[in-house]
Amino acid sequence: MTNQARGLHSQLLESLGPAITAGEYPPGSVLRTDELAQRFDVSRTVIREAVRVLESMHLVESRRRVGVTVRPPEEWNVYDPQVIRWRLAGADRPRQLRSLTVLRSAVEPVAAGLAAQFATPEQCAELTERALGMVATSRGRQLDAYLVHDIAFHRVVLRASGNEMFARLGDVVAEVLSGRTRHQVMFEDPDPAAVTLHVQVAEAVREGDAARAERLTREIAVGALQELDVLAP
Predict the structure, then answer these.
(1) What's the predicted TM-score (pTM) here?
(2) What is the DSSP letter of 138?
(3) How buried is residue 74: exposed, middle or buried, by Cβ count under 10 Å (0-12/13-18/19+)?
(4) What is the pLDDT of residue 8?
(5) How far is CA 160 from CA 1, 101, 115, 154, 204, in A?
(6) Any residues with CB less than 8 A from the CB of 82 and at least 6 apart, and which?
(7) Contacts for 92 with CB less than 8 Å, ≥ 6 apart
(8) Which residue pairs, CB below 8 angstroms and at least 24 apart, start in 24-28?
């Protein structure tokens, strides 16, 4: 695929994906290749490539002599980072944020407890470095810089758990944290108490205190849910 075709393919995805996840094309809707090609002024090849990606996300399915049919939401790959990004961009953002934050609250405390048992010295050092980076960027409306450290911190926790299933949720957590910032579901400066909790989690992991690491991470999750009550009711 040429660079131009890749660009058209990306543009088409960024039009169709959010439209499907926002319900503009309800389940059962049929998207016909010819109509899409005419509407978006792209080739059938570009349409096919975009449809393949949407199929991999279980958003649509292609049927011979029928066309491309939109699948019901319960069949979507809701863990796909791009699907998460599209859903967070839509009107259903508050419910989606809450759903994802509840998922984090169920997984990350357990992951932190495991990290306290299994984290390598290198992972402990990175966790401390990222926590201190969060402290350094937590004032002066530096949310973009803060986000970099926040995402990295949570990725390390999930990876250091030693559980490959938890580790694979790193992209999901990254999209949740990015979505909160991108859509301004954050205070202008992060909650100081939450920042301190991240530093304390890093300490607990470094000291091998699994119970404390789990408890502190659960406090972070509870705080995130309380923020949503205020910012995205």
Answers:
(1) 0.90
(2) S
(3) exposed
(4) 75
(5) 38, 20, 5, 10, 13
(6) 13, 17, 57
(7) 22
(8) 25/70, 26/70, 27/70, 27/71, 27/72, 27/73, 28/69, 28/70, 28/72
Q: Which residue in this structure is represented by tokens 């803060």? A: 146
| pLDDT for position 44 | 87
Neighbouring-strand partners of residue 171? none
Give the model's pLDDT for residue 6: 63
**Local structure of residue 72 (DSSP, 8 states):** P
- Three-class SS of residue 30? strand
Q: What is the DSSP letter of 71?
A: P
- Long-range contacts: 137-142, Cβ < 8 Å, 24+? 138/189, 138/190, 138/192, 138/195, 139/189, 140/189, 141/188, 141/189
Block residue for tokens 């495991």? 114
- CA–CA distance, 141 with 113 (Å, rounded to integer): 31
pLDDT, one tens digit per residue, over 144-159 is 999 999 999 999 999 9
Tokens representing residue 75 in the block: 């069949």
Residue 59 DSSP label: S
Look up residue 74 and give its two tokens.
């319960």
Which token pair is 34?
Answer: 């010819």
pLDDT tens, 204-219? 999 999 999 999 999 9
Q: By the 8 A CB rule, do 197 and 205 touch?
A: no
Q: What is the CA radius of gyration of the chain?
A: 20
Dihedrals phi, psi of 32, to nearest 5 degrees = -95, 135
- Please state, in angstroms and rounded to a whole number, the distance separating the CA atoms of residues 147 and 134: 8
In the prediction, which pLDDT does 4 show?
A: 56
For residues 168 and 56, give the distance between their C-alpha atoms in angstroms, rounded to a whole number: 17
The pLDDT of residue 19 is 94
CB 114 within 8 A of CB 161: yes
Q: Which residues of the chain have pLDDT under 70?
A: 1-6
